[in-house]
Amino acid sequence: MKELALWQEVQADLQQVEAELLRQVDAPDPVLSQAARHLVQAGGKRLRPAFAILAARCCGAPLERILPLAVALEMIHMATLVHDDVIDASPIRRGRPTVWARWGQELSLHTGDYLFARSLILVATYDDPRIPSVLASVSVKMVQGEIQQMAAAFDLDITLRDYLDRIYRKTALLIAASCELGAIAAGADTATIRHLRYYGRNLGLAFQITDDVLDMVADPEQLGKPIGGDLRQGVITLPAIYALQASPKKQKLIYLLGKRDKTQAEIQEAIQLIKDCGGIKYALDIAEGYLERARKQASYLPPGVARDTLTSLTYYIRTRGF
Amino acid sequence: MKELALWQEVQADLQQVEAELLRQVDAPDPVLSQAARHLVQAGGKRLRPAFAILAARCCGAPLERILPLAVALEMIHMATLVHDDVIDASPIRRGRPTVWARWGQELSLHTGDYLFARSLILVATYDDPRIPSVLASVSVKMVQGEIQQMAAAFDLDITLRDYLDRIYRKTALLIAASCELGAIAAGADTATIRHLRYYGRNLGLAFQITDDVLDMVADPEQLGKPIGGDLRQGVITLPAIYALQASPKKQKLIYLLGKRDKTQAEIQEAIQLIKDCGGIKYALDIAEGYLERARKQASYLPPGVARDTLTSLTYYIRTRGF
């Protein structure tokens, strides 16, 4: 899988997204500008803009049509990250100090609110009422997902269904909306909009499952933060849910996962138990099922380079190391 | 000044706002619902919905047309309050424990994000693109105002102009937008929209100046929190700006206002110095100037009960005790 070749299709567009992002987060206040620029420059895969652009391209729309929306989607994503870092008191994200670590709680809170509000200015430039409407309802559900995660912390009775519902709200919804809104902004027909939404939903679920797996098995350097962060915070993800049923050392695992203030050695031990009983493989198999469904939805789209890239992305998600 | 008689004009409408607010903040998650309901039931003057309704009534629109917008405006206001309480670590607002005090930082942050996002769903029901556009730009400027206030904490060199700019963003903008959007939703002509926006801006400035005065002179029981909160947090408001120039005990005042972790006695002493040199009277005179301008703008509106109520509200602002 050549990652660069894959992204090349949208590379030039994403460079424009990057320039526009920097322009949009600029503020009259120097500290706010700095914090927002720091967030942009911390990087990220820009998945949401990439999906919106590819979806719009599938439907024959030029970049100008989709650029404000693509930038708005990334700003909404960044707004959730900066608030998450306050809540998790995260010192590091993507290998760099967070806004919270560098500028503190008050500015982090304002920066999140600011980015979200700024994104709405961009969204308001479209005259299709479905665009603000979808984004508003996605934003509401994303917050509900965060609260579900908060309420379920250290709850070892969480079911597969609870988990899928949570990651759907937390991640898949905004990726689905990126695909859907890209198509809407491009003036696509209802069937194409629906296929792109389902593509995004399935891919988003697979993406979050893979993310949750990587939190247990990635190279910390590539991940940009220590591994086992979810276990530390009591967030029970798919490999753990499986292992809580399947592990021969179930009691030990229950003890370790339920314990607050785990040591790094305890986290390592829990991850080992999860690996030993096949929890990682199980989660990746589930992710693969969603990727297959995403591929099927892609096959219904108008043929072309954009569709091929959307299909290729389903392979990239499976093999990414970070 | 009979307060009840004045509000009677919009009382029935505000009861519908109240019912709709409770309906709108309802969430599938019980804790989120509780926190949001707690916020609604903590009360408040519902000034923003009242202004939107009166503006729409001036232009002959029925309540149904304006209700979603009126509720959205109050939700945006509530979202800023709940985030402010996190930042200020406020245990009490309007005489009741804050969401922050009762449910903690994480839920407060989510509740603010949730209310803001929910308000956008209501706003998206209007097909006039000016409505989301005005609200997005007002929200951006409100955050900038918060950051200005943060940056200016304990800055005794703040000018009258800085102060007015800050309270414009912090308070007057959303009140101006309430009036303006009420008119827009009612399909008013450009001149009427402009008069209502200017009415709201002037009234909003006077309202915040009065609020800042009350923070020094109100009955703590009526205020619902201890007095001197601004001075404690280093927020230098109009009476203090004046006193820093005019007080014969300027050095003592500089010492007291610049001091962090003031005692209650020091706060009382600072307030006394501000009162002694006429700081309160000065601020109220400035407020009165804005109220006169608001009244002038109201005089250009279509005559009727709604216009009379808007005019009467300018007298109420001046005389309110809380």
TrEMBL record, chains A, B:
Its cofactor is Mg(2+). One of its GO terms (biological process) is isoprenoid biosynthetic process. GO terms for molecular function: heptaprenyl diphosphate synthase activity; metal ion binding. SUPFAM superfamilies: Terpenoid synthases. It holds the Pfam family polyprenyl_synt. Keywords: Magnesium, Metal-binding, Transferase. Its EC number is 2.5.1.30. InterPro entries: Isoprenoid_synthase_dom_sf (IPR008949), Polyprenyl_synt (IPR000092), Polyprenyl_synt_CS (IPR033749). PROSITE patterns: POLYPRENYL_SYNTHASE_1, POLYPRENYL_SYNTHASE_2. Belongs to the FPP/GGPP synthase family. PANTHER family: ALL TRANS-POLYPRENYL-DIPHOSPHATE SYNTHASE PDSS1 (PTHR12001:SF69), GERANYLGERANYL PYROPHOSPHATE SYNTHASE (PTHR12001). This is Heptaprenyl diphosphate synthase component 2. It comes from Neomoorella thermoacetica.
